[in-house]
């Protein structure tokens, strides 16, 4: 089975490829560091039957990414393929959204390679699969969906939306018609309120807590 692994972290993609090949899970595996590189570089005559993809990458992401895969395969007249999401985003709303928009399986990046292989086998049998840890999160959220309220000013919300959409601070400043210094100040305030230190953690936190919809 031809397989494609799409992840902007090259080391992760190559590690998964090595493990799957050693377990004879796939006959041929291609790795791509973005969805666009996949669309541009995959051989139309040798389309993968399995796609293992991150959900949050530069460029297209979220629901739009899942839709893009569907449109790509539709244009190539290939109906049978399995889409497995392997992501750091683990909130129950995103998991349900991904399954609703075409994912056959959804696993956390904390999952073992053994569970990824199990998910692949389940998908090939025509079943849906959600990672063990994610299933626990979904059940816990169903039983008790408590949410902490974080207050952001209107300007901070605007900055957050732009950053989560892939803009740099400089680009956000240009779009908001503000100085880079001012936007950087808003950005630092948001990071402090959310108690995070990296932009990637900020985006994950914003998605988990409903400040940013990944399909927006």
From TrEMBL:
Native organism is Chryseobacterium gambrini
A Pfam family annotated for this chain is: GerE
What PROSITE patterns does this protein map onto?
HTH_LUXR_2, RESPONSE_REGULATORY
- Name this polypeptide is given: Response regulator transcription factor
Q: Which residues carry this modification: 4-aspartylphosphate?
A: 54
> HTH luxR-type domain spans which residues?
145-210
Response regulatory domain mapped to chain residues: 2-124
Stretches of the chain forming a coiled coil according to its record? none
Which InterPro entries would you find in this protein's record?
CheY-like_superfamily (IPR011006), NreC/VraR/RcsB-like_REC (IPR058245), Sig_transdc_resp-reg_C-effctor (IPR016032), Sig_transdc_resp-reg_receiver (IPR001789), Tscrpt_reg_LuxR_C (IPR000792), WalR-like (IPR039420), WH-like_DNA-bd_sf (IPR036388)
Write out the entry's keywords from A to Z.
DNA-binding, Phosphoprotein
